[in-house]
Amino acid sequence: EGNTALHLAAKNGHDEVVGILLEQWGEIDDLNENGETPFYLSVEGGHEKCAELLLEAGSDINVLTQNNSSALQIAIQNGHLSLVTFLIDKNVDLVPKPEQKNSPLHLAVTNNHLPVVKSLLDANHDINFLNHRQETPLHLAADLGNMELVEVLLKAGCNLRAVDKHGKTALAVASRSNHALIVDMIIKAERYYAMKQEHLAHSDDRSDFSLSFKQDHSTQTKQIRFSLWNLAYNQLNPQEWKKLAVFWKFTGEQIRAIEEQWTGKKSYKEHGNRMLLIWLHGMLLAHQNPVKHIYKDLVEAGFQPLAENIRAASSTGMDSRKCAVS
Questions:
Q1: For residues 63 and 74, is the Cβ–Cβ distance under 8 A?
Q2: CATH for 5-183?
Q3: Gap between the Cα atoms of 236 and 259, Å rounded
Q4: What is the pLDDT of residues 97-107, one digit of tens each?
């Protein structure tokens, strides 16, 4: 296989042997038949001490194999977080070479290695880097349906409008893949960052401390969530949820993405409920009282009877002040 003694020592994690060999070794970046250096093999095997000795001796940290794989990429694929951190600390190149199809962040997302994703983002890896198919890491996470990865990328402020080579945003990819929870998370993020941009001059970053785009299961919002569920399932007629969505400035793409998850003739009820929960998420992040706003907005949108029902339910069933999450 073209391995030298140094290759074999590094591959098997024999750091003492590596140390002895390096005392008189000439070319430390010898390539085997796969174009792998001893340093690459040490990283592939997860042998940090060997990798450190070889780097100190002058090994090339960014050399590519015949398959255009780098030491950082193989560490990511194998989920070796400590080695990824080690390589980042040694200033490994986070920008892929032109012949590489994916960035390190793409690979971490594809392999579902959340700690590695966080480590790369902490190292200022370009969160919006495009791979060979013009996909951002968010495109891949949305297609996989991994909520934890999507949450991390959304909170890190990735570009939500980037399109792949087919002209699809991450929202469209999630919708096409029938990942309803991911669709709702991305819409929440789009509306949140649009709101933040709109009120930049008066921005209040208190909400960022506990920012999340996942489903809300908190006890503080249980009653208002039930009221919104009742509104969607028992009071709104087909198409009326979309009228409300337009009133609340949901975009056409957002409405279509919600609607694409079809569950039957009465799926409009679930669509309406999801839209209302997304609206609630924005209200709470803006530190607004949702009960007060739902009544006022229903009236303005032409749903006076529904508004009265909501007010009656809120006055008999709860104290509206308890619905605002501060």
A1: no
A2: 1.25.40.20
A3: 15
A4: 999 999 999 99
> What CATH number is given for 216-323 in this structure?
1.10.533
Alpha-carbon dihedral of residues 277, 281, 283, 288, nearest 10 degrees?
A: 120
CA distance 59 to 40: 9
* Contact (Cβ atoms closer than 8 angstroms) between residue 102 and residue 96: yes
* CA–CA distance, 167 with 187 (Å, rounded to integer): 18
For residue 198, count CB atoms less than 10 angstroms from its CB and return exposed for 0-12, middle for 13-18, buried for 19 or more.
exposed
Q: Is the pTM of this model over 0.70?
A: yes
Backbone angles phi and psi of 130, in degrees to 5: -100, 135
d(CA 131, CA 315): 54
Condensed to tens digits (0 to 9), the pLDDT of residues 96-152 reads 999 999 999 999 999 999 999 999 999 999 999 999 999 999 999 999 999 999 999
